[in-house]
Amino acid sequence: MSLQAPATVGMRLEEVDTPALVLELDAFESNIRRLGEAVAGQARVRAHAKTHKCPEIARRQIAAGAVGVCCQKVSEAEALVEGGVADVLVSNEVVGARKLERLAALARRARIGVCVDDAGNVRDLQAAAARAGATIDTYIELEVGMGRCGIAPGEPALGLARAILGSPGLRFAGLQAYHGRAQHFRSMQERREAVAGSAAVVRETKALLERHHIPCPCVTGAGSGTFMLEIESGAWDEIQPGSYVFMDRDYAKNEWAPPLPRFEHSLFVLATVMSRPRPEVAIVDAGLKASSVDSGMPAVWERPGLAYASASDEHGWVEIARGAAAPALGDKLLLVPGHCDPTVNLYDWYVCVRGGAVEALWPIAARGALF
After folding, report:
1. Are residue 77 and residue 166 in the same domain, yes or no?
2. What does the longest C-alpha to C-alpha distance in the chain come to?
3. Same domain, 226 and 317
4. What are the pLDDT digits (tens) for 22-49?
5. How many helices (H) and strands (E) does the chain have?
């Protein structure tokens, strides 16, 4: 945690020290409402906290109707539970004795779930649960087109379900089916086709389990770019959108059409112009250490003719088109991150702004929680 926050409550936005991670509260709250209105009780919402890493945001999502949250790492789950979140799914595999011991210990304090795709991991998870005297919700992760983790559908998944059912301390909670790549397929048609393929895998495996008298309590998955398509398919019981609360430049490149709602940009990096070396260039104090560029450079918000062109560790190059209103030395610019999740992980605080003034500071408690 930083020794000092970049702002104080009541400060005007232009007074905030930079680089700072700014959360525009009106847009943020609108996004949370919009998700609830779109889903309208058709599926459970388990919001993905890997996006925001913040118990305050998780609690607000739960207050708006989410059954709990998910995350990707044990340390994220620890920070969320410590922050008062009582239902957390680690929507990822957890491997290694120390991590499993921590996960099992956490399951004595909150409802904890985890994903598996290997029988050996099931044995290790069961042993950790037994030593802790805990019960852990255990989901089988299916390979549904992501090409990452996940067991093949059909017989391999059936065998893993039997292993879970035979493991005291583990509760078979259902299937995890998440096609992460589909979130960023640009056209609605591409995303529809990807979700249809994933749904076929889910139905095949669920039907096989049922033929062997194994109930499947829940199918969970989906993300901000596809969640209404999973709901429409009828194959999912629970969705896991994360980026919807913030949006980023990469998501903005997607085609958005019904039944998916359009969310607003609410997350920004505030930067200061620190040099004007040439008339057509402004250098800002937000570079690679201030905004992730894995999905492209950030965009300059609501300043026509200004384009964030490149970055080094501590500097960003903003190109100024001919005729555009040029920023002066010391001016502040808002940047829309290319990818919100890894950008959040660079900061200790959200500077929460409404009407141009700082309303709150929220700690990013799981910042750096990678293990």
Report:
1. yes
2. 72
3. no
4. 999 999 999 999 999 999 999 999 999 9
5. 10, 17
